[in-house]
Prior knowledge:
By secondary structure, this protein is mostly helical. It is built from 14 helices and no strands.
Amino acid sequence: MATSWMAWAGGAPAPWHLAALHEAYALMDEGRFEDAEARARALVSARRSRTGRDRRPGTVWYAAYVAALAARAYGRQLPALLVEFEALIAEAERTYDLHHGLLPLARLNRAQVLIDEERPGEAEAEARDVLRALARRAHRADDRQTELSALVCLGHALCAQGRHEEPESIARAHLPRAAEDGVRPLRTLLVRSLSGLGRHEEALAQSLKAVPEPPPHAAGHLELHRATALHSLDRGDEARAEAERALASCERYLHPAHPRAVAIRALLSRITPP
């Protein structure tokens, strides 16, 4: 407790502010992204003075990061979202303070927004730069999950450019040692890359292997690529049923304009009606 109060005195979020941010993360775990974003943005507003100067910059940065994270996960296409992540990154790069440890994650979220905006070359460069930065850190074991997120992000950026060999290699190299929460993202990347290489039977077989239940932000992702493999194999009825299940999962948690939901509806439009 003494440590947290000392950190608070030095500008870190106060314990009660951290509780509010933990509540926002819990809302995201439930798929309540709009509520999480509103909770975090309310904290940003509450910590600014009437002149607009931050009373407690650590709290404001963390809360703004959580708000942007929730907005991106929900998938409502906000023109300012990329600018918001860039501002957070710029501030974190200026200071080796309490939020500097989240800099790689903020950069990876920026990369994901770039993929959503159909700028995968820039996303690839960002993900590779994050991986290089992580490789220079002294305690690399502590960054294992962030490294995995960067590799998956890189893989999807490459797939979006029609470059599928490296994503397949990434997925196959890291699946055997992935923790439980890393298995599904890597499996999804593997399925997508195999389909991109025209190996649709193999992609379908991989998509049917057991994986943990997806968190709300990943709703419909693996199913989209399973449906894509089925469609490429001319198994239209199965592809349509799988795509409809994927869309239903997205509609439960995500905004209708989420890029994944848009991609699923586009796939359904290409499948011959029954």
